[in-house]
User: What shape does this take?
Amino acid sequence: MANELLNESALVQRAQSGDRGALETLLMAQYQRVFAVCFRMMGSRPAAEDQAQESLIRISRGLAGFHGNAAFSTWCHRVATTTCLDELRKQRRRPSTTSLTHEDGSEDEKTDGVDITSAIEWTDVRADIRAALDALPVEFARAVVMRDVLELDYSEIADISGVAVGTVKSRISRGRAMLAELLGGNRDTGDGRLTSGDNQ
Assistant: This one.
């Protein structure tokens, strides 16, 4: 791991100096991680591919501003998340082609039938939690993921989802309760937040 970080640091320095080969190596190494973030955020493969490409463009253009305060992979993760958030904000007022209708007549956005937790390697989330998230209605799972995995604030989640903050809080609360029931009530922290569990 130490050697990998040293090699990555050297590649970053070379890329910042204008070495296009080093830049291409860095981008190729980060693509799968960036795509996974985009898939998690966007909910469909075509949208994730588009935003992954946009993320790589932003990473290339912003590389001069990377000062090594965090790991390069962490910085790329943040760029990808921001890129997707920007796109989701642009989309939030567009009509949804598919919706979920509740008893009160309200409708929620549906992510084209793609589970937000599928095809993603979550090294920080246990397999049993991933399976439980897959079992939740998509609007609850998405709210929990944005709050407890991506650590977005309530207003940001509301902005992305196009619903009121109160609705966001309700979805998160109900989602966490469903997870606790599915997982036997022993897989959350004292405040109910999703967690990775017993160091596994």
